[in-house]
Amino acid sequence: MWVRNLRDIKVIRDPKAMDLLADPTRRKIIDLLRAKEMAVIQIAEHLDKTPQAIYHHMGKMLETGLIEVAKEERIDHFIETYYRATAEFFMFTQGEEKDEEGGRLQEARTREAVQALPRLGLGPGIDDKTVAKIVALARKMDQAWKGKLAQEVSEKVAEMEDIDYFTKQFVIEYAQVASMSSKQFDDMLRQQKELRELLVTGLKRKPELAKQRVP
Question: Which tens digits make up the pLDDT trace of 135-153?
């Protein structure tokens, strides 16, 4: 029996990996490979894609260390390769020069999260203009705690093998708050209030009635 040996969390510094995960298909592949080891043909069937399309994504993710070969099985004269994610969760750290790549990943995730809210019955949907404001604000909030200290804390927390992933997130959050100046903390509270107002206003927005043309 093959025993999975995923790390709980892995720190990713490669900006190419950040850029790759801005693609929704690659994020779906990672989610599948977190759950179990799969061959390309299995992934293709699950995502309703061609094997050729999946191979294209897999090659890029192998290069950046997001996935790895788990095992190979011989079936008659053919060798089937199975893949797995290299960690349950990925923690991205970035320097000043990597803001653009990290920003694209954050923007994609923020948009996806906001657009999923109506599926919880929280409203008819948020218009694109408001979504853009939320994305811009989320990125601004992310700038409040970054740089060398943030990277050092993230890396040290990732190495704490005696605590689970969810506890690690609390550790990072508390370290973030504790390291802020009073002004930074006040700014964070103000930005969170602004974020809530954008979400509440956007979700309560009623769809505009289509204007009917008078013949």
Answer: 888 878 877 666 556 767 7
